[in-house]
Design brief:
The chain is mainly beta. Helices cover 10% and strands 44% of the residues. The protein has one helix and twelve strands, in the order αββββββββββββ. The chain has a five-stranded antiparallel β-sheet with strand order 4-5-12-10-7, with no helix packed on it. The chain has a four-stranded antiparallel β-sheet with strand order 9-8-6-11, with no helix packed on it. It has a three-stranded antiparallel β-sheet with strand order 1-2-3, with helices on one face.
């Protein structure tokens, strides 16, 4: 269960202390609040998974063992955006190379824009969600062909 009061407190700390980010883990949930270069504060949370799957902003899950594809899934309920603004190009397209830490999309939840990062190295095989579409927790957003 997400502790929204904790999220609000972390956002307040990042804003007031003018720090670039903060990560906290509590009761099996990792909360991360970051400030980008323009001063915009975003937050994300993830649920600790049983070993050996690591907890992360976007938990990769095997989509098809035979095909060697890994799914990037939504860590929350929200709205999926492929780019940082309507005029900007998408973060990634099918065929683009990604590496751990590369932002691949944004999920907007409660007026907070949460950057979703790749957790594996590979190529984007397919984007499964349309820009502006609502997404559910755990929904597959895109498939990555691991390299």
């Amino acid at each position: 269960m997400v502790d929204w009061e904790l999220v609000k407190k972390l956002i307040k700390i990042v804003k007031e202390e003018e720090i670039s980010g903060l990560a906290v883990e509590e009761k099996g949930v990792k909360y991360e609040v970051r400030r980008d270069a323009s001063g915009v504060v975003s937050s994300s949370h993830s649920f600790a998974a049983p070993a050996p799957v690591p907890a992360a902003a976007a938990v990769p899950a095997a989509a098809s063992e035979e095909e060697g594809l890994t799914a990037i899934t939504s860590p929350m309920v929200g709205t999926f955006y492929r780019s940082p603004s309507p005029e900007a190009p998408p973060f990634v397209e099918s065929g683009d190379e990604v590496a751990p830490g590369k932002v691949v999309c944004i999920i907007e939840a409660m007026k907070l824009f949460n950057e979703i990062e790749a957790e594996v190295k590979g190529k984007v095989a397919k984007v499964l969600v349309e820009n502006g579409q609502p997404v559910e927790y755990g929904q597959k957003l895109m498939l990555i062909k691991r390299s």
